[in-house]
Amino acid sequence: MEATNINHKAINDVYKNAHIALQSISDLLPSVDDEELRKELKDEYEGYEKIIGEISTFMAEKGIQPQDINVIKKAFMWGSIKMKTIIDNSRNQIAEMMIKGTVMGITELTAMKNEKTNFDDGVTELIDKLLTLEEQYEQNLKKFL
User: Fold this and answer.
1) CATH homologous superfamily, domain 3-139
2) Which of 52, 47, 49, 38 minimizes the C-alpha distance to 141?
3) Is-contact 64 106, C-beta < 8 A?
4) 103-126 confidence digits (pLDDT tens)
5) What is the pTM of this model?
6) How many Å apart are CA 22 and CA 26, to the nearest integer?
7) What is residue 100's predicted lDDT score, i.e. its pLDDT?
8) What is the DSSP secondary structure assignment for residue 46, as one 8-state letter?
9) How far, in Å, are 15, 29, 37, 54, 64 from residue 131 at the CA level?
């Protein structure tokens, strides 16, 4: 695959990774009663918004069109979150859900980093930045278990 296509796919994958996290937090927040956990999720939301802004700027500079999350995937995520929180919206349950999602993001980013082929420095930098952010969020969420 041509280096340009590899970079376009990689940065779009990073963009989607951050957007999925943002969407998940947005879907979860109405179910969160615990104020401390609510604050953590709002802080994470702001962190994801900030990095999405950086990714979007990078994409615009490179002339890359962002690909949004599939509408069906968004609906499935929303439904899954709602079902789980209707059954149990405890602090532990919500933290566990967020940790699982964060670990999925970390796994995806780590695999991208390890399989790196011809990524531009800017793409690598954004992968590393989001990976560091998600690793920190995973640690932050563990205190809510």
Assistant:
1) Ferritin, core subunit, four-helix bundle (1.20.1260.10)
2) 38
3) no
4) 999 999 999 999 877 799 999 999
5) 0.90
6) 6
7) 95
8) H
9) 12, 23, 21, 14, 21
